[in-house]
Amino acid sequence: MSHTFMVVMACVSLFVGMSLFNIVCYRFGRRRLTKGDTKPEVPGAIIGAVFALLGLLIAFTFSGAYSRFDARRQLIVHEANAIGTAYLRLDLLPAAAQPSLRNKFREYAASRAALFEELADVQSAKSELARTDALEHEIWNQAVSASASSEYQSARLLLMPAINEMIDLVTTRTVAIHTHPPLPIFAMLFALALACAGLTGYRAGTAEHPAHFYNIILAAVTACVLYLILDIEYPRYGLVRLDDLNNVLVELVKTMG
C-alpha cells in the first residue's frame, strides 16, 4: 500500500467522519428540539473554544511541517556543498592518490543522490545507506593514507575536516528525513475536527434554518488542510516534493566527470 494512498484515505476518512458525525449530532439536536419544551442551545463559548483549539493545532502542525520541509531542503544544499568542497580539496593530495579518491567521491555523490529515490522502499533505502557507509570508510582511509607524509600535513588540515563534515551530514539528513510529529498529535487533530463537526451539527439541529452546505464545506476544507500538512511532512510523495532540489546532487555527480 503506497504512502500517497494512505494519506488520501486518511483525509477522505476525516471528511466522511466529520460529515457523518455532523449528521448524527444534527439529528440528535433536532430530536431534542421536537421533544423539549425549550430550545436546546450549545453555548457559543464552548463552540468557539473547540474551534480555537482545532485552529491552534492545525497552525502548529502546519508550521512544524513546513519548518521540517525547509530544514530538509537546506540540508540537501548543505550536503552538496560539503561534498563539492571536499572533492575540490583532493587537488592538495599527491597526484597518484587522486584518481582513486575521485572515483570514490563520484560513487559517494551518486549514492547520496539515489537515496531520495529509494526512500519509498525501506529495504532499498537501508541498502543505499549501507553503501554510503562503506564508501565513507574507504574515502576516509584513503585520504588518511594519502596525506600521511609530513609534506602533506597542511593538506590534511584542510581536507579531513571537509570530509568529516560531509560524513556528519549523512547522519543529520537521515535523522531529519525520519523526524515527524508523534502520532497522538494527528489523533488529537482528528478528534478535535470530529468534535467541531458534532457541535456544528447539533447547533444546526436546533436552528430554524440549518446550513448543511457550510458544514460540508467545513469538513472538506479541514480534510484538504490535513492533506496539505501530510504532503509537506512527507515531501518525497504527493504534490510537494524535493525532486528538483535533489537534482543538485545529481548535477554534482555530472560535474565530477
Short description:
With 257 residues, the chain is mostly helical.
Structural write-up:
The protein is mostly helical and 257 residues long. Helix content is 81%, strand content 0%. Helix 2 runs antiparallel to helix 5 (153-177). It is rod-shaped, with a radius of gyration of 27 Å. The two termini are 39 Å apart.
Strand content: under 5%
How many strand segments?
Answer: 0
The major β-sheet equals: none
Shape descriptor reads: rod-shaped
Task: Please bin the fraction of helical residues.
Answer: over 70%
Structure classification:
mainly alpha
The overall pLDDT average reads 88
Q: H/E series, N to C? A: HHHHHHHH
Number of helices: 8
How many whole angstroms does the radius of gyration measure? 27 Å
**Distance between the amino and carboxyl termini:** 39 Å
Number of domains: 1
Regions with pLDDT < 50 over 5+ consecutive residues?
Answer: none
Strand and helix layout:
Layout: H1 3-35, H2 44-88, H3 98-118, H4 122-146, H5 153-177, H6 183-205, H7 212-233, H8 243-255
Helix pairs in contact: 1-6, 1-7, 2-5, 2-6, 2-7, 2-8, 3-4, 3-8, 4-5, 6-7
How would you describe this structure in keywords?
257 residues, mainly alpha, 8 helices, rod-shaped
